[in-house]
Amino acid sequence: MQTLLNFLASVALLVWGTHIVRSGVLRVYGADLRRVLSRSISGRASAFLAGLGVTSLVQSSSATALIASSFVAQNLIGLPAALAIMLGADVGTALMAQIFSLDLSWLSPLLILAGVIFFLSCRDTRAGQLGRVAIGLGLMLLALQLVMAATHPITEAHGVRVIFSTLSGDVMLDMLIGAVFVIASFSSLAVVLLCATLAASHVVSETVALSLVLGANLGSGLLALIVNARTSGGGRRVAFGNLLFKVTGCLAFATTLPWIAELLARVDSDLRRQVLNFHVVFNLAISIVFIGLTEVTARFVERWIPAAKETTAHAEPRFLDTAAIGTPGLALANAAREALRIGDTIEQMLNGMLEVIRDNDASRVNDIIRLDDDVDRLYTGVKLYLTQISREQLDERDSRRWQEIISLTINLEHVGDILEHILLDLRDKKIAHRLSFSEAGMKEITSLHERLVANLRLGLSVFLNGDVEMAQQLLAEKERFRDLERAYHDTHLERLADQSMAAIETSSLHLDIISDMRRINSFFCSTAYPILEQAGKLRKSRLLSGGSTGAYPARPDLAPPTASK
């Protein structure tokens, strides 16, 4: 029993090591790897090499499948290029199995020691995350040694040999068992290495080991299909096309397995090397056969898996790629892009509000209010997406960015609610009674609207670029807007004193609108505060007893707006 537990623990350690390497590389270089994949689509060869290189670093063809599928789902690359990437990814996994099969026992303690030192001393830096990758590599090498040590007594245990003897004679059954192992462990690399070790220890026969390797390749295709089950049609097509490659290859190799085994034995008598060489030959053969048929395969897959149809007319999150959750920097960039979409929707609402004020068009009110539903939907998507990002994985800079994104989306959501309230008031108080603002009042509202749109765009630019000078300009615009709103408030009261009928009829609505516009502007300008605070350009308190000093006058309205409905 102790021997069996040692063996199972060694296998678990091997799987865990591959997981640490995969997640660590994605955290550090995830954005760069995705950039490499997205740009390497000029030809089949470049896409193939990109998939091979990325998978060699990530140690997981399933992770590469997630990235490629997300690109196809977002229409960033075509399906044929994604299928070529997956062919390269499978070859990359096979080559990495060859490397890990070398005698690297001396390297394991060095990697673990150096990795622990770097990870504990500078955990939140890139060097610390690379230390985490080194720990994973060291654990993989150590696990392979432990598997070898644990399988030695297994070969002498009669009961265990009886269990493994059931894996002989039926290639299809052994393939199925290998596929189940991969799905359970989430790593075809670990299963292939385990099969090679079992064959070298004579726990299983060569034919069984080769059948299990076929099953491991089939399992990696099934695993990619499972993890992409919830993506749109384009994402599922990549996984389905890759699975077609593997099924075809498995059927072809299964029928010729005895001859292939004999040929491998002539090349190398070492059973461990035979299993690993078989893994490479299998994936190379599939790549050579199908690299020229990716477009044909893509058309076949598109026929069987139709593109996802747009079932609703409302906006849905477009950039919140769940495959990027494990890469905080990339996930934050996706959330920021979605936040900018919310800003664009708010600008549409602002422009629509001015049209309603000018034209008294009641039919436009409901259309613009529906845009607020889009804002709420996108805001909820960004908020839930950000909560899935582990805050423990974020360094100080990423933590600030996380806070900036959530603050911007909250503020924009509040602006949408304010605009909805303004539109409802316009419909009920102005359009229903066929009232009009005075000519001077309309000019004031138009002037504030122009500044409001300009400040929204400036605020989004500050959010995107983090430019200190632009942030200072934004706060200066906030002060000008407040002064202008006060001036227009006073001139409106003067029109009332002059008994202007249009001003009297719309007085309450006019004052409410310009006041709400000042509130909206405060939300737009709040983007500047974290930028200036980080740059040391903002005082902690703006209430001074004896005059003001510093870059800005001491005014209460320069405080960030309260996040309230």
Hey, roughly how much beta strand do the residues contain? Answer: under 5%
Coarse shape:
elongated
Which ranges are low-confidence, i.e. pLDDT below 50, for 5 or more consecutive residues?
309-313, 543-565
- What is the number of beta strands? 0
Describe this structure in words.
This protein is mainly alpha-helical and 565 residues long. 78% of the residues lie in helices and 0% in strands. The protein has helices at residues 2-39, 44-58, 61-73, 79-100, 107-121, 126-156, 158-165, 171-185, 188-200, 206-227, 233-255, 257-267, 271-290, 294-304, 328-359, 362-387, 396-431, 439-465, 468-497, 501-505, 507-525, 528-534. Helix 15 runs antiparallel to helix 16. It starts with a helix and ends in a 31-residue tail after the last helix. Mean pLDDT is 77; it is low at 309-313 and 543-565.
Key attributes of the depicted protein:
single chain; 565 residues; mainly alpha; 22 helices; 0% strand; elongated; disordered C terminus
Q: What's a concise summary of this model?
A:
The protein is mainly alpha-helical. Helix content is 78%, strand content 0%.
